[in-house]
Amino acid sequence: MSNKNIAKIDGIDVEITNDKTILDHAKSLGKDIPTLCHDDRLDPNGCCRMCLVEVDGWPRMAPSCATKISPGMNITTENERIDRHRKTLISLYLSDHPENPREKETGAPNQLLHFADKYDVSNGWPHLENKRFERPDDPNPFIHFHADKCISCARCVRYCDEVEAVSAITLAGRGSSTTIATADNISLLDSTCELCGGCIDVCPTGAMDEKIPLLAKAPPERELEKVRTTCNYCGVGCQMDLNVDPNANDGKGKVVKITSPDPGTTTNDGNLCVKGRFAYDFIDHKDRITSPLIRDKNGILQETSWEVAIEYAAQGLKKVREKYGNDGLGFISSSRCTGEENYLMQKMSRTVFQTNNIHQCAAT
Ligand code: SF4
Ligand code: SF4
Questions:
Q1: For ligand 2, is residue 205 a contact (CB within 6 Å)?
Q2: Binding site membership of 42 for ligand 2 (Cβ less than 6 Å)
Q3: Using 50, 70 and 90 to split pLDDT, how confident is the model at 173?
Q4: Whole-number pLDDT of residue 299
Q5: Which CATH class is domain 89-215?
Q6: Left if phi > 0, otherwise alpha if psi is -120 to 50, otherwise beta: which for 21?
Q7: Which of the listed residues 163, 164, 272 should we mutate to test ligand 1's pocket, taking the one with most ligand atoms within 8 A of CB?
Q8: Ligand 2 binding pocket includes 207 (Cβ within 6 Å)
Q9: Is the CB of 180 under 6 A from ligand 2?
Q10: Looking at residue 102, what is its pLDDT?
Q11: How many angstroms separate the alpha carbon of residue 207 from the centre of ligand 2?
Q12: Best probe residue, ligand 1, of 157, 158, 166 (max atoms within 8 Å of C-beta)
């Protein structure tokens, strides 16, 4: 290892192989530096000041998320001064937060409260009255902004700019009145917003909240069970987590929201579109078809078993083949099926029915 490329983090030699930050290198050593405004999908912002660390020879502490590591740096991520800084900072945030924050944790877990627990901070500072305006009458069906929980970290705004490239929301106002607004405070429905819900996903305090579970008075996310699955709305195959309230539906459970896995852990990098994130009410919809249907002689669809339905379909396909030959049949598959199901569909077409008339909607 050449000494030219070495820095030290908490006394451990780190080889600098890229132009990444102190935070990135500290993470690779398993260090757990607290952050609020940081998200791996976004450019560093350094505004929340939670991740400050000491660098030998530097008069002030440096934001580890926004400071590139360089050879010869001697970095300390934990000591009495840093701990005092984190405690003071958390107290300041809490003084400008709802007075009973745990009761108001309606949606995602509040990372500020997590750090308050971790650093053993109970708020002894005078409480400030919330001066941030919100859009309580915004009729958009999915996103509610609790201005009192906002810490102005701008993760939502930066996600909207940098990942969605939509810029529907922005920081507005100054000082303690700084809030998240749309242009002229119009509804998200009238803005460029695509209702992707990414702003909810990245918000560290739950200030951006999902309306559907909020209005349904679903339990907060920490009381829900997460089940990883693949979105079936299109062929991209985004990974998502169904959040199940185990006590709903007389103990049978009910999906009450969808969240995305952490960035960097799945191919969709924690991003979802409006359908994947919000269009889950079909799961328990009364009109959902849950068993096979066959038309009776009057043309009315009647429920039947899978065995009867499969036999009926097989006989129908055979009749067409007998009358019109193999190429009288055509098979159309769907991008909503899995790759394995699509493979089986073409296998059935080509080998069982001896026709290449097989197509899939994603190919058009
Ligand atoms: S839902 Fe998506 S597009 Fe709309 S404001 Fe939030 S991040 Fe931007
Ligand atoms: S709404 Fe959430 S993500 Fe946006 S600035 Fe406020 S705390 Fe940060």
A1: yes
A2: no
A3: very high
A4: 95
A5: alpha beta
A6: beta
A7: 164
A8: yes
A9: yes
A10: 81
A11: 6
A12: 166
Nearest CA to ligand 1 atom 4: 193
Which atom of ligand 2 is the closest one to the Cα of 203? 3
User: Under 8 Å CB-to-CB from 238, ≥6 apart: which residues?
Assistant: 230, 231, 260, 266, 267, 268, 271, 272, 273, 276
Percent of the chain at pLDDT exceeding 70: 98
Single-letter residue type at 308: V
Q: Could you report the per-residue pLDDT of 313-357, keeping only the tens digit for each?
A: 999 999 999 999 999 999 999 888 888 999 999 999 999 999 999
Q: Span 189-214, mean pLDDT?
A: 97
pLDDT per residue as tens digits for the range 81-110: 999 999 999 999 999 999 888 888 899 999
Nearest-CA neighbor of 143 among 101, 198, 65, 89? 198
**Residue 147: CB within 6 Å of ligand 2?**
no
Euclidean distance between CA atoms 253 and 218, whole angstroms: 12
- CATH class of segment(s) 3-78: alpha beta
Tell me, yes or no, if the pTM score tops 0.70: yes
- Ligand 1 atom, smallest distance to 274 CA: 1
How far is residue 255 from each of residues 185, 209, 225, 259, measured CA to CA in Å?
Answer: 32, 17, 9, 11
Give the position, in ligand 2's atom list, of the atom nearest the Cα of 36: 8
Q: Residue with the nearest Cα to atom 7 of ligand 2? A: 150
Domain segments of the chain: what residues?
3-78, 89-215, 224-284, 293-363
Ligand of minimum distance to the alpha carbon of 191: 1
Q: Which residue's CA lies nearest to atom 8 of ligand 2? A: 153
- What does the mean pLDDT of the chain come to? 94
**H helix runs in the chain, sequence order:** 22-28, 80-95, 111-118, 155-162, 198-202, 211-215, 274-278, 306-324, 339-347
Per residue in 212-251, pLDDT (tens digit) is 999 999 999 999 999 999 998 887 889 999 999 999 999 9
Query: Topology of domain 224-284, per CATH?
Result: N-terminal domain of TfIIb (2.20.25)
